[in-house]
Amino acid sequence: MRAEGARDDVAVMPDAEATQPPPAYRRPRRRLRTVASYTALTAGAIVVLFPIYMTIVNSLIRPDQLVQQPPPLFPTDPQWGHYATAWTAGHMSTYVATSAVMTAIIVVGQVVTSILAAYAFAFLRFPFKRTLFVVCLATLMIPFEVTFITNLDTVTSLHWFNSYEGLSIPFLATGFGIFLLRQAFLQIPRDLQEAAQLDGYGHLAFMTRVAVPLARPSLAALAVFSFLGAWNQYLWPLVSTGGTTPLDTVQIGLKQLLGTQVSQIPVSLAGAVIAFVPLVILLLVFQKQLVRSLTAGAVK
Amino acid sequence: MTVAAEAPGAAGATAGPGGLRARRRKEAGLAYLLLVPALVLFAVFSFYPFLRNFKLMLYETPPVPGLPAHYVGLHQIWPTLSSTQFTQSLITTIVFMIMVVPLSLLLGLALAVAAHRKLKGMAIYRAIFSSTVVSSVAVASVVFGTLLNPVVGLLPWLGINPSPPALESTTWALPSVALITIWQFLGLSFIIMSAGLQSVPDELLEAARIDGAGAWTRFWRMTVPLLSPTIFFALVVSTIYAIQAFGAVDILIGPQDAVRLHTNVLIYNIVNTLQIENNPGAAAIMATALFLIMLGLTVIQMRFLERRVNYAR
Predict the structure, then answer these.
(1) Which residue range forms the structural domain that includes residue B184?
(2) Contact B47 A139 (CB under 8 A)
(3) Chain A environment of B146 (Cβ under 8 Å)
(4) pLDDT in tens, A258-267
């Protein structure tokens, strides 16, 4: 994103106008356009945020206020206890821990396997290189919805049903990650590799001390993307866990928490907020990397 | 393979011919070693299950529990694909896509155009518009499940009191799931469109504005054509996103058979066939059909739309 460029332009604009004043009739029109822009932007923001805002409000009001008319638009008597209930009695603490472990394994696994494979594709010469790269990309054309039938059998026969192995191992490699990191590695100048070789760097040293540190922006993008996918996945944790002590992730836990009684609604909404918070932090801290990974396919 | 042609590199020049070959073999060995983790995982969890679907579809599991699957060859394929259950599911998915795709693209584009001007506080608006990209289907379902609840919150106060409630109605259940999906996809739609808008030269739009082109004309005659590669990309992504819908149906749609029949999207149908009807053969047929549909969509969109897409810079 061009955040810096944008700031420059804002700083430059008043000067430009001072030296070359626009025709008098355009000044009020410009202000009008600005007001119109802010109105449109704020309206858009309200529409996008309204569901989340109402969720927070409804997670904090008393159950009897839920059916109140008009509905409360602000928690006048905030019931923080709903969060405690969701966390303990609603088992959100267990769900969050399960999701955290599973997500950590998947993120680390995807980053490591992608670094290794991408390094081979970017820096090494070997027979069938092009073919093998196409094979890696081909996995992107096979959605998980097509493979989960057999994966369920595979995981069961390996005794991984309802386990962290079953939840995470099928996702430890990603064609997208290999593609993204290969692109980043290819940006590294050849001279640097030759210089490192003259300095006595082997491939392992070059990978860990030069290639990986230089590819940090893409690595961050991949890690954020993996985190998002792992934390939010639904189908596989649903079908690959079960039994008397199901290893439920946050997403599956939310389904359990979603009660049918009106009195349970604030607690399940509190659960949804708990499940959403890590991702909001992710978005606020890593917005740039997230955008980078999400638009990677659009940029040629 | 062009690898051989590249062979006499700077590194090899100093070594003798024997050393070069040994070195080359070592390099290839290292490469394969580095590729092993990813390739093994792909083989076991992607290619093998994909190919095994073709074997599974030859076997039929009797509806009576306990009986083993038996070989039926190709005889299960057509009955499965022509069954009302599958065709209904396909139609539902197509209707669902028509509800989701155009609206989420249009809204994403509208937000991106609104957020394109350089104004104070824009970073906050951009963060807000992107925010739904991190929402999960379970969070979105819980959020909208409450908003659409017939006794709670806004709907009864606004006097919108459909009977049966939206999520229990054969008419409104699918649009409700579509609404959730649109909201969830809006963030990604905005991000893609915004990234595309960054590449549209501002001077061009400014010049058109000075030449007297109105906002409407500028949008349809300049922004949209210049943005067509981006819109095309977003179209592919949103179609694939919509066709993979499952979670919201699984979480929000109750046990009423009539409503389920109207929200029986493809993935839901596959999961049901596998887990409730316990028929992996039929599930494999449907999954392969899903794969072919997705592949076909990508190819068709590329072949037919690419020509009308403006790649001019």
Answers:
(1) 77-308
(2) yes
(3) 54-55, 58, 265, 269
(4) 866 777 889 9
